[in-house]
Write a structure and sequence with these properties.
174 residues; alpha/beta; Rossmann fold; six-stranded parallel beta sheet; globular
Length: 174
């Protein structure tokens, strides 16, 4: 099974989150990769196209992990094609004003995925935590609100535990 990481707006495929979570996925038997979107810094639609093109190369649905804008991109891709699971960190959902040219998906995000886990920080200064709550609630997804900010650097131990549980238990539900 394949797992694809999508980094945030000002991040990279070598982010601390990806470097921390990739070994956990690999230990669980998944093949991992992180797509580089740095040339598409402000182009949400271009990021979604790149991710969907990569997903089309697999014979089975992949697991998507996205942080911030990468979470939005993962959700948008999962609205277009089935995915095995979504693990979202501070996803930039319900922020259509930030992606006005994307024209990507309706406000209700009709994802084609059952295994969804959302992690967000109470102190997120970039994306309101209640957006993550709304997204999770509407999909009956797992939601974990942590005492952390948008970068989540101080919560990586907890996020790693949640990710491992998602890989072990959550994907079996989806």
């Amino acid at each position: 099974m394949h797992l694809i990481f999508s980094h945030g707006h000002l991040s990279s495929p070598d982010s601390h989150k990806i470097r921390t979570l990739a070994p956990l996925a690999e230990a669980a038997g998944l093949t991992t990769e992180a797509i580089d979107y740095r040339d598409l810094r402000d182009d949400a639609a271009g990021r979604v196209q790149r991710l969907c093109a990569r997903l089309n190369g697999f014979s089975e649905p992949a697991v998507l992990v996205g942080s911030s804008m990468g979470g939005y991109v993962s959700v948008a891709a999962a609205c277009r094609m089935p995915v095995r699971g979504l693990f979202l960190l501070a996803p930039a959902v319900y922020l259509n004003d930030r992606y006005p040219d994307a024209g990507l998906i309706e406000e209700n995000y009709p994802v084609r995925c059952q295994a969804i886990s959302v992690v967000h920080g109470w102190r997120d200064e970039v994306i309101p935590w209640h957006n993550a709550r709304r997204f999770a609630e509407e999909r009956r997804a797992s939601l974990h609100l942590l005492d952390t900010d948008h970068r989540m650097a101080d919560a990586m131990a907890t996020i790693s535990e949640l990710f491992s549980l998602f890989l072990k238990n959550g994907l079996n539900r989806g």
